[in-house]
Amino acid sequence: MNSLLTAVSVPEDRGRPILDAATREVVGYAPVHTVDELAAAISAAAAAQPGWADLGHAERSRLLHVIADDIDACAEELGEIITHEQGKAGGAGETHAAAHWLRAAADTVLQPQVLQDDGASRAELHYVPLGVVASIGPWNFPVMIAVWHLAPALRMGNTVVLKPSENTPLSVLALAEIFRRHLPADVLTAISGDREVGAALAAHPRIAKIVFTGSTATGRRIVAGSAGNLARLTLELGGNDAAIVLPDTDVDAVADKLFWAAFMNTGQVCAALKRLYVHESIYADVVSALAERAEKAPMGPGSDKANRLGPVQNPAQFEIVTRLVADARERGARIVTGGEPATELGPLFYRPTIVADVEDDAAVVGEEQFGPVLPVIRYAEVDDAIRRANSTDQGLGASVWGPDPDKAEAVARRMEAGTVWVNQHGGVDPAIPFGGTKSSGYGLEFGVEGLKAMAATKVIRR
């Protein structure tokens, strides 16, 4: 019996059914909190915040370490909930990673900055708590990204009201249950509700900061909703990440990395590789290598740890994937492999798909597919590839691949994205700031900059 699931799931007549992403069977029932319950949670969080701040950095960091240890101890139980709700294999891996990031935030040092000290006067820049932080999370890495929000917010002395995605609430409620075992009352509250609750959270006058990971469309609504309370914002929104493979690249050396950069978590990663521009001299070889890997990648329910690719998490996203591939086919693109549902595995499985001989005006290139589909686009001149890669309103991540790291970096400097990787794609580190440009959002997470984003500045002069 999964005790965490039992602790957070409510009786059928009081909750909303949450379905297994692979089998579409009921996993449990999530509470449906109301706007009034949200308001009460925010008021309680505001009352608890001064006491939490008064504990100081050392004590808050100690408690975060205790929580991280408990998360590790509960990794199998929490990972099981993630696997059922989200669909991925290795849900426990996401749980252990979340614990690692929590410890990293607890140990990151942020000292006051001395601005002036000339003997006659002294000025220092301090970072102080904001108050109540609203965290609104996605469904692709529900626990991991919740911790990305929670860890710096709590470390800096804020209290948090956390709203998980409607698609994956149980795993986040279970995570919050672990946190609450060790935190003072009302320092963290998880609210499971619909879009009305999310909108009310963003617009509430007691919310000082909103951190959101999700789609650009929802991000725009959060910006509009927060206008009245002037809450600070950190938005990590959609990405349609481009990669450029330069001439003379060793295809065998990079093929595995390229494939998993695109298909990790079945392509349901904000910073996954989603558009691949390949020089014409090696185009056929790259397409062939990727198709070979797509055909061999083990796909199936995440409950079988031998599987590397799971289902598309929800029907709405499945329809997007299906539409984009159909549009590419109708435009004359070549579906090298895949291109159809894997109905023998379950209703939301879609075969890993490589699309070749596709043009930039195809929807599968211009839109973020967020699923197991990769368009591979031919180019002749590097300058043209850079122009085409930059011709989107999104700019979360990008990458450049080539045998000469210096030449690849020169191309990377011309790419319009918050992070540009060289001979890798999508890797993040708790010490290295991460954030997007253009319509992929603004603000930084992780490391010292992530702590600063969860604080107000105060200058003290004497």
TrEMBL record:
Domain (Aldehyde dehydrogenase): residue spans on this chain: 17-460
The keyword Repeat is assigned to this record: no
SUPFAM superfamilies, per database record: ALDH-like (SSF53720)
Catalytic residues as annotated in Swiss-Prot or TrEMBL: E236
Family classification: Belongs to the aldehyde dehydrogenase family.
Taxonomic lineage from the root: Bacteria, Bacillati, Actinomycetota, Actinomycetes, Pseudonocardiales
MF-aspect GO terms: oxidoreductase activity, acting on the aldehyde or oxo group of donors, NAD or NADP as acceptor
Cross-referenced CDD domains: ALDH_AldA-AAD23400
Lineage top rank: taxon: Bacteria
Name of the protein in its database record: Aldehyde dehydrogenase
Listed InterPro entries: Ald_DH/histidinol_DH, Ald_DH_C, Ald_DH_CS_CYS, Ald_DH_CS_GLU, Ald_DH_N, Aldehyde_DH_dom, LUC3-like
UniProt KW keywords: Oxidoreductase
Pfam family, one: Aldedh
